Amino acid sequence: MDITTAVKAMKSAADVYGKAKKIPEQKQILEGLAVIAVLQQEKFDLEEKIRNIAIKLRKAREQLDTRSRFELAYSVYWLKTDKDKDQPYCPSCYAVGLEMPLQADERHSKKSTWWRCPNKDCQGAFNPWDYHEPIHHSSGFEPWGG
Predict the structure, then answer these.
(1) CA 100/CA 91 separation, integer angstroms
(2) 48 vs 23, higher pLDDT
(3) Which of 25, 97, 134, 142 could connect to 146 by a Cys-Cys bridge, CB 3.0–4.6 Å?
(4) Is the Cβ–Cβ distance between 129 and 135 less than 8 Å?
(5) What are φ and ψ of residue 47, in 5° steps?
(6) From residue 68, how far is each of 28, 62, 65, 71, 83 by CA, in Å?
């Protein structure tokens, strides 16, 4: 083996030895990158949870706002600003968070009008003016003649 070949072989061996010394450092870098990837995923998951909570909070605030704007009377809901009780809202839809104005079948007389819910899933019918408050009996009442 000539000197030039021997020097090249020694340089090659020195390079391999130098790189081998860096393997623990490279392993630490790879472990650090793996930790960063896990933390980024956790951050993404937490951001998603925050978005979902913000949506739920917005819906809850909207429901509170809706409840503060409506009142129940004569078996249907009315806007509190509707003092003349001209436009009832469906109580069934209101219970599931929808503001569904009822539509009058016939408008001959306010007192004889049946109001229908236009929601295809509900289709409730109400006559608020023919509504009678429930009768509350004393504790001794026996409806079946006991």
Answers:
(1) 9
(2) 48
(3) 142
(4) no
(5) -65, -40
(6) 59, 10, 5, 8, 15
